[in-house]
Amino acid sequence: MPLNGLRAHRETAQSLLAELRNRPSHAYLFSGPRGVGKALVATGLAHSIMCERSPGENFCCTPERCPIRETPQTERTRGRAAGAEVERCECCSACVQMATGVHPDFSYVTRPPGRVDVLIEQVRELIVELGTRPARSQTRIAIIDDAETLNIPAQNALLKTLEEPPGHAILFLVTSSERALLDTVRSRMRPVRFPALPVADIEAILERRGVEDKVRAGALARLARGSAARAIALAAGVEPPMKELLAALSNAKSMDFARANALAQEFFANRGDAADNFELLARLLEDILCYKLLKTEFVAFPADAAKKMTEFANGVEVKAVVKCIDAAVRAVEAIEAMANPRLQAENWWTLAGQAMRGE
Question: 14-18, 112-116, 175-179, 321-325: which range is least confident on average?
Fold first, then answer.
């Protein structure tokens, strides 16, 4: 998507593009919550540099009208073999190469399917590519997504390139957990922080994606907690465990270690799920706190959650809610700092039980 079509982070993208034109850094660290558009901006910046027809924020590759991006490669090949007429692409050849992942001067590295981390072999291969002179453009650009999953050997392997960068290369690291990276890695990169998206921006993104019911779009946007990717997943039917976590909260007064351990195993087994579900708990508890202090109404999705939240809110003390919110925020921070997610969950549910009992 051209950078001037961004719904969010447009000013950040424009500022970075101006910097890249004039005096770019060798490496950028894009950090912020998951699903807010960090990788989208990084890819858009790469497109804006690589585009040969109209480089800049209005680069010529537009996914909405690009058959190269919309049609799978196997179908295009099959159509050519059968002699069928293939729709022409309006994008320049460099943008087509970018869109299909074959541009010789662009690399996009992320976790392989089924793996929990970016492999050191991927990093070593990238280092070799970055050290090679550009083949088509004047700059080599690489993006490492899910950079928080770079293990220590992979980060150390990358460190020498960050210390002695090739003059023709620009590297973007995209992460949802800046503190998961070594201090030596972070200190050698230009930091750019991306905030959570406002509800209005997420509503607009959902409407653009075909969610016509404004009430549903608003509920999904609030439930997404600032993440467009999470909102899109919710719109596609991927519901978070709101009912289950709310039911566990409602019965927290009888919480013991066995139940806390079971909840930790079921909903907080890995780092991603744990962070998402702690954020969901914090949002639920914040809504409950607003209800108790400000008498605001619950606007929840799914719809029947509002009644259950009201019932729970009427039976809990403000002090207990505040204590649980604080603990949830601290748990997310600990998980981002690579603490054990299941242990954090066990401790949180034990504390929640104590808070609900007034202990």
Answer: 112-116
169-175 and 27-31 beta bridge pairing? parallel
pLDDT at 142 over 70: yes
> Distances in Å between the alpha carbon of 218 and those of 61, 62, 200, 211, 233?
30, 27, 8, 10, 14
Domain end position, chosen among 238, 266, 301: 238
Among candidate residues 217, 238, 259, the one where a domain is terminated? 238
Say how far apart CA 59 and CA 42 lie, in whole Å. 14
Q: What is the mean pLDDT of the chain?
A: 85
234, pLDDT greater than 90: no
Cis peptide before 302 (omega within 30 of 0): yes
209 with 174, same domain: the answer is no
Instruction: Record the pTM.
Output: 0.74
User: What is the pLDDT at residue 260?
Assistant: 94
Q: What is the DSSP letter of 118?
A: B
Residue 213, domain extent: 197-238
Q: Say if residue 17 is in the same domain as residue 102.
A: yes
Is the domain of 109 the same as that of 249? no
3-state SS class at 205: helix
User: Does residue 255 carry a pLDDT above 90?
Assistant: yes
H or E stretch covering 91: none
Given a contact cutoff of 8 angstroms between Cβ atoms, the answer to whether 220 and 231 are in contact is yes
CA distances from 65 to 43, 45, 305 (A): 18, 19, 40
Non-local (6+) Cβ contacts of 266 within 8 A are 244
Residues 175 and 29 in one domain: yes
